[in-house]
Amino acid sequence: MKKLRCFFIFLVGWLLIQGLYAQEDKVLVYRINIKENIGSHTWIYLQNGLHEALQKDARVVLLHMNTYGGGVLEADSMRTAILNFPLPVYVFIDNNAASAGALISIACDSVFMRQSASMGAATVVDGGDGAKAPDKYQSYMRGIMRATAESHGKVITLEHGDTITKWKRDPVIAEAMVDERVVVPGYVDSTQILTLTASQAMELGYCDGIAESLHEVIVTHLKFPDYQLETYNPTFYDQIRGFLTNGVVQALLIMLIIGGIYFELHTPGIGFPTAIAITAAILYFTPLYLTGYAQNWEVLLFVLGIILIVFELFVVPGFGVTGIVGIIFVFLALLLALVGNIRFNFEGLPATEIFRAIMIVLGGMGLSVSFILYLSSRIGKPGILNKVALHADQEGYSSVPLEPAIMVGQLGRAATVLRPSGKVIIDGTYYDAISLQGFIERDEEVVVKRYENFQLYVVRK
């Protein structure tokens, strides 16, 4: 019985060891899903997914794509990250890779498509009404599409016994996905934007294989019969960070920061506008700081700018150098926090990232001006701001009680020494008072002569 027990333990241990060895022998394929509009969320998912793939020693990264497009700036950042990533990055277009999705797909080392999938239609459109954007935007998109195709280099092929060098992915095809003026004979004329089906993409070298599932891509085309598939799963924090790093949200936060500061400077004490401005500043800088974009000195630059503006308004008369420097510091802090620079080193930084940052900050400042003008015009008017300002029928009233005015002629005594100001007590109540004739010692009797500017003026009895 004892021998049987030992044999059983040995067998279980051997099976576990074999299982571990088998697990180690499997190729790790790391999947990142891109199944929504391209934006700040998908950019963060890709960043985190690529990082985790390296941490887990994955052999390849496989993008599982189904998108109708999205933001050009985020798509450009994503394609740059893919092109510079040390591991092979492949994409499986499950259904659609339109517009920004086509740009990201072309950046990958290999493209695989479902038979019913399509890729292309990368014309830049206005996010509001879907109208075609001006030609300068089309020119830029056409340029980055071409550059992405060219980044894969050229290949040498043999055709009819002749050696021919040609692009792995013809840049003209990429341009035709943006500009209808680019003609691809047999596929699209000068009146259409190019969109490729899976078979067309195969013919033009923009698809490396047709498959109906991820498993087929991995086993048949990547030649990994024994593999382990792991998927990047975004956390709730990733979703919140993606929301807060959206360009529109960042512009709104800048609006609240500037608007809150403006209205606080025009109201006594520290109140609701300050709370709004501080909260907006925290929501603006925190995700950027945690992502590595905003540095400590950029946050300190923002705080210093605010201090200089406040100093200019309350200490230095007029508005001069201190206030101007403060505004410049605030603008630079908001701007530099959006771009990945190290102490003003912008080497290798995509121009689109700088352009995006400038547009967000200027947009936020423009919104803040509109916000300030609107609220200023609504204060005191019917609505939620009705009670913020005094109304015409309130003019002539004072917020300070006028009861001491009726005390002229009454007797009292000095509660403190009046040199010449101090306090007097009349009928058991203390009042601020000023002596009209020299100093008055404590406990001397006094007579109230007049009441002006909320002060009692007294003389000795």
Note down, in words, how this protein is organized:
- This protein has 461 residues and is an alpha/beta fold.
- It folds into three domains: 2-234, 2-enoyl-CoA Hydratase, Chain A, domain 1 (Alpha-Beta Complex); 237-378, no CATH class; 403-460, OB fold (Dihydrolipoamide Acetyltransferase, E2P) (Beta Barrel), CATH 2.40.50.140.
- 45% of the residues lie in helices and 19% in strands.
- The protein contains 14 helices and 15 strands.
- The protein has helices at 2-25, 40-55, 72-83, 100-107, 135-150, 171-176, 198-203, 214-221, 236-244, 247-265, 272-291, 296-314, 321-336, 351-378, and strands at 27-34, 60-67, 89-98, 110-113, 118-120, 154-159, 162-167, 195-197, 209-210, 227-231, 411-414, 421-426, 429-435, 445-452, 455-460.
- A hairpin with a 2-residue loop joins strand 14 (445-452) and strand 15.
- The longest helix has 28 residues, at 351-378.
- 31% of the residues are buried.
